[in-house]
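User: Please fill in residues for this 636-position structure.
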């Protein structure tokens, strides 16, 4: 971790909970992912995730379904005291600069100190983050953020200097150090993450120059967020827009769609310039560091072979017929002459239950996840009864959903529960992240306890897949069964198919820029439009406005990230099928491994090999079988 050596995770960010590596910081994977909050949109469509707002619950009930942050610090005053103590204690680690690789003893002492400081910083960041998100209008926690920011950055600088010493060791010196079993067992993955980037490290002067350019390089993403959150003018907020797209009134859907997309279209040249700027920045850094491409640079942190990325796109692209069939079925069921973008979200079957209380949701989740065994069920019990979850919406709370893990504590889950099946699915999804982190931390030391985002998506999707499997199996009538099938289909459509489409778009425009081709908003529109037709098929009507959909995807400013949703979905659906047939032992063991090895190796040992196309093909087969089952059920 550090300014020159990895992901600088700014734990004080409000809009982005975890920070992906900037292109000038692509060395080691950060251990101190202090804001390891996995904010995800369960529906990773072009639309925004609904905020799931609902009426504020009675105060007594809300208290019982809100976080107990006192497990971190009993008061703001205690937090302030700990921050001062941390700042003072970090000087002990600073004393090791220039000495950390002097001997194995020096290295062990330094890393032991760093481990303790990392855990403390993790808690400091988590406390402010959690307090902010349930007091979003409070300047008090903004000020605490500012105070923490200075201490955090100073600490990052110390860690960066220490890691640089490890990076500069000769191969012979490094092998001598890592041959020590104690060092290898506890710190091996952390050190290896640093060393794998050795060949991409430039000389000190060049590194210093790139570091100073970093604030400029981050401007495309920053400006995009300013537009999206402040300058974009529409009549509907994200929650209202999502609701309108699900309206049975087609004119309401169309009006909402046009209002949203026109706001982007009116600024399309600016937005095109920002995205091309992001791509050119990636191309610059990958070229300077000696990577073959921007894609290789971004896959390096998880030790992912480019073939995994390419095979994902290739396999899904060759198997879009089931998705085409589903789109055609949608057109038929809705009785439409033409199917447009704004017709893709209205439910094909009316929801069977719009009043699933939180208490009932717990019962559904216990039942659905029971195949994972007693140990997993005990974690769910802790989450529900030890106040891991802040459940309901209120005016001072942020929208959306996420899980934030805190080592040597329990994870914290934020939802805005609104009694719908979508909320139940969101809760199951976030509990997947929480259980994964909890099991990792209980079975691994700190340096091996932070799973990558790549495998995190597996844990969350497995839970959702199990949820829908159980609901479909136990449906009491054809309408109920059809509704649950459509929800499972949309999970796979939005997470496997569309995230792969996004990944293909991202790869295509990077390759164009890296070849020196001219790319502007018109080119981006054209590439996006062709992909929409490719993935959705002949019954999808492509209008001009839909072509600007690329401009609405904030993930493109966290480059080469979206593919992880797709691989996570294929692995999660594969795990769910295996668990229901063969039990959960291999999967539970996978969860306990944390980050003790690289993602694809851990998954392969658990029975899901993402270096092959089998998990993707199996998920596509599952999608196809669900489409056929839906057709059969709707005909009854």
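Assistant: Residues filled in for all 636 positions:
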């Amino acid at each position: 971790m550090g300014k020159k050596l990895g992901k600088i995770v700014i734990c004080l960010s409000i809009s982005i909970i975890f920070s992906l590596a900037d292109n000038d910081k692509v060395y080691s994977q950060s251990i101190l992912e202090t804001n390891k909050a996995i904010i995800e949109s369960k529906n990773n469509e072009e639309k925004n995730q609904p905020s799931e707002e609902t009426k504020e619950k009675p105060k007594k009930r809300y208290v019982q379904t809100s976080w107990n942050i006192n497990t971190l610090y009993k008061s703001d005053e205690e937090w302030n005291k700990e921050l001062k103590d941390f700042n003072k204690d970090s000087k002990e680690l600073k004393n090791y600069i220039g000495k950390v690789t002097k001997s194995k003893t020096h290295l062990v002492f330094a890393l032991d100190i760093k481990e303790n400081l990392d855990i403390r910083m993790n808690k400091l960041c988590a406390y402010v983050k959690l307090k902010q998100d349930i007091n979003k209008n409070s300047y008090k926690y903004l000020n605490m953020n500012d105070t923490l920011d200075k201490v955090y950055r100073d600490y990052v600088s110390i860690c960066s200097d220490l890691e640089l010493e490890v990076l500069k060791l000769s191969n012979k010196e490094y092998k001598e150090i890592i041959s020590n079993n104690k060092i290898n067992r506890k710190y091996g993955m952390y050190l290896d993450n640093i060393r794998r980037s050795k060949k991409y490290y430039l000389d000190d002067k060049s590194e210093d120059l790139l570091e100073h350019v970093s604030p400029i390089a981050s401007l495309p993403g920053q400006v995009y967020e300013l537009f999206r959150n402040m300058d974009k003018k529409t009549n509907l907020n994200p929650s209202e827009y999502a609701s309108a797209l699900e309206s049975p009134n087609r004119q309401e859907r169309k009006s909402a769609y046009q209002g949203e997309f026109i706001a982007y279209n009116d600024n399309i040249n600016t937005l095109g310039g920002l995205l091309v700027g992001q791509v050119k920045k990636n191309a610059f850094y990958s070229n300077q560091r000696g990577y073959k491409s921007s894609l290789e640079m971004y896959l390096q942190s998880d030790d992912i072979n480019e073939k995994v990325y390419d095979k994902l796109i290739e396999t899904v692209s060759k198997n879009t017929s089931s998705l085409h069939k589903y789109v055609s079925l949608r057109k038929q069921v809705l009785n439409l002459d033409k199917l447009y973008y704004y017709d893709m979200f209205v439910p094909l079957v009316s929801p069977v239950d719009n009043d699933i209380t939180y208490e009932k949701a717990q019962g559904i989740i216990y039942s659905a996840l029971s195949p994972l065994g007693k140990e997993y069920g005990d974690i769910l019990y802790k989450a529900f009864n030890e106040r891991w979850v802040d459940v309901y919406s209120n005016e001072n709370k942020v929208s959306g959903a996420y899980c934030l893990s805190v080592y040597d504590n329990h994870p914290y889950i934020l939802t805005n529960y609104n009694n719908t099946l979508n909320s139940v699915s969101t809760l199951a999804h976030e509990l997947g992240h929480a259980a994964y982190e909890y099991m990792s931390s209980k079975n691994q030391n700190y340096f091996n306890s932070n799973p990558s985002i790549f495998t995190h998506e597996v844990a969350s999707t497995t839970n959702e897949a199990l949820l829908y499997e159980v609901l479909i199996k136990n449906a009491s009538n054809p309408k109920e069964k059809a509704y649950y099938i459509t929800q499972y289909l949309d999970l796979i459509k939005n997470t496997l198919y569309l995230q792969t489409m996004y990944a293909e778009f991202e790869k295509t425009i990077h390759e164009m820029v890296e070849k020196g081709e001219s790319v502007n908003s018109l080119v981006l529109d054209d590439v996006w439009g062709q992909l929409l037709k490719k993935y959705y098929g002949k019954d999808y009507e492509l209008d001009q406005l839909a072509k600007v959909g690329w401009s609405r995807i904030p993930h493109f400013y966290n480059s080469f990230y979206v593919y992880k949703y797709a691989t996570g979905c294929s692995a999660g659906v594969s795990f769910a099928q295996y668990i229901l047939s063969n039990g959960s032992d291999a999967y539970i063991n996978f969860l306990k491994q944390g980050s003790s090895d690289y993602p694809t190796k851990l998954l392969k040992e658990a029975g899901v090999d993402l270096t092959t196309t089998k998990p993707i093909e199996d998920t596509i087969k599952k999608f196809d079988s669900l489409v056929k089952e839906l057709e059969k059920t709707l005909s009854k």
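For context: The chain has three domains: 12-20+62-201, 228-352+476-635, 358-451.
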